[in-house]
Structures are given as structure tokens and as C-alpha cells.
Amino acid sequence: MAATLFALAAFRNTAPGTPPIGCVVDWFAFLWAETVIALSLIAVVITSVRTALHQDDALST
Questions:
Q1: Alpha-carbon gap, residue 55 to 38, rounded angstroms
Q2: What is the mean pLDDT of the segment spanning 14-24?
Q3: Which residue, 14, 44, 12, is CA-closest to 29?
Q4: Which of 40, 47, 55, 61 has the fewest CB atoms within 10 Å of its CB?
């Protein structure tokens, strides 16, 4: 997901017929996709850290 987060910006800039930054199409397509990917990445990291910490607590007791 982290690779997709950074790859979308490069793909958007090289795609043919790219709309200028800030237009309505850009807002509804690209920025929402970036937001969803970023939030998903944050959720995965938080879940992974909590799981790892929970396993460490179980092993230490």
C-alpha cells in the first residue's frame, strides 16, 4: 500500500490527458484515492503494532 501511495502521484503526472491539479475531476478521483490508501496504510500499521505488542505481553507472562 505504501508503494501505491507514492506511485499514484507519478502515474497521475505521466498519464495522457492529465487534468490540471485542483480541478473537480482531480479532486474526486486522485485525491480521494490517495486518502483511502493513506488511511488504509495507517490502519494496517496500527493493527500490526497492536498485535505485536499483544503477543509480546502474552509471551512475557
A1: 26
A2: 68
A3: 12
A4: 61
